[in-house]
Amino acid sequence: MIITVTGAAGQIGYALLFRIASGAMFGPDIPVSLRLLELPQALDAAEGVAMELDDCAFPLLGDIEITDDADVAFEGANVALLVGSRPRTAGMERGDLLAANGAIFAPQGRAINDNAADDVRVLVVGNPANTNALIASANAPDVPSARFSAMTRLDHNRALAQLSGATGAPVSAISRVTIWGNHSATQYPDLSNARIEGERFEIDRTWVEQDFIPTVAGRGAAIIAARGVSSAASAASAAVDHLRDWVLGTPVGDWTSAAIVSDGSYGVAAGLVSSFPVTSDGGDWQIVEGLEIDEFSRGRIDASVAELAEERAAVEALGLL
Ligand code: NAI
């Protein structure tokens, strides 16, 4: 399995590569070769990470290639993790942020289109992840758009952890939690269908609205406030979970959350990359259909999807789609 990781010398890269190489992503039977894409100024740091990967003597790890050339990095890739991006800096307007990331994700989309393996699966982690995935997919016309996804699994895992903490139920007993919409403060972590030990349970709506939702949606900012830098190990762990479930399948009776290209389900405008409840049997992500959406959920989903539509309009205006 050839796995390309962009932004390999960054914080998430440092937490992610060792998990991949140890077999945490696809299990103990699938050897992995790594392709690390970095900016020219970070190639030395990426070399250092590769030296440490060597020093782990992971039995599953094949060759490691380090490059600043996207065509080389995506050559033959079965999995592409697009982590490197241009984060928002002080005073940066959203339009500037989208333009700066368009300059990264449009060429990377083209490089995936031209070089990756026929079965390539792409996970965009770098923010603004949903719209970056939209840009990459739009620039890879020969790759089915279902092969592109953006990461809301960290939000999903945060929701599991919060519900576990509040109820005392172990994470392993909780199922059918959903993140809807954008990986941003407007996301909607939804417990309407959640189960503990397979059963519906009484849930305090005031806690959900005033504690659970703001805690999950604001967790990234809380971690930056506490750590001084953004979440990295948990983001890497979520990326491992996302790819494992996509390639090996989701557990029977449960679903997970991933941002994928909408087919119009649940009133989410077709073509937007929005988070949904999804399952996989090892092929493409499938949206879980037929869930009831109450008025509160409708409002929250619509608000986050409206933000995605604005982002799409902005990148369309920049000629990135
Ligand atoms: P970081 O700043 O530590 O590392 C980013 C790396 O990407 C740097 O080494 C940089 O040289 C590289 N890079 C930048 N542009 C590149 C390009 N065009 N090609 C290849 N490499 C490039 O950042 P960190 O903490 O690793 O986070 C990465 C991204 O992940 C950020 O955008 C962050 O906001 C996002 N993130 C997303 C989460 C999610 O749940 N979707 C959760 C946490 C972070």
TrEMBL record:
Gene3D superfamilies: Lactate dehydrogenase/glycoside hydrolase, family 4, C-terminal, NAD(P)-binding Rossmann-like Domain. Residues 152-315 form the Lactate/malate dehydrogenase C-terminal domain. Residues 3-141 form the Lactate/malate dehydrogenase N-terminal domain. NAD(+) binds at G7, A8, A9, G10, Q11, I12, G13, N101, Q108, V125, G126, N127. It catalyses: (S)-malate + NAD(+) = oxaloacetate + NADH + H(+). Substrate binds at R88, R94, N127, R158. This is Malate dehydrogenase. It comes from Conyzicola nivalis. The gene is mdh.
